[in-house]
Input
Amino acid sequence: MENTIDLIHQQTRVLQITLQWLDRNKHSNKPIRGLIDCILNHSQDLVKKSEMELTKITYKGKEK
Output
């Protein structure tokens, strides 16, 4: 499970870097920029639910 969590964090970081690159290179008005922004900055409820699922799975794994 640690690998899954690490993968998600790395993917998030890559998306953050991509947003920064798009902004620096005057691509702020491109549709892809809006999609990335939506996932990173406007899906906090989904992020919290995902973290709860991962925590639950990790906890269940430790019970065995």
Observations:
- The chain has one domain: 2-63.
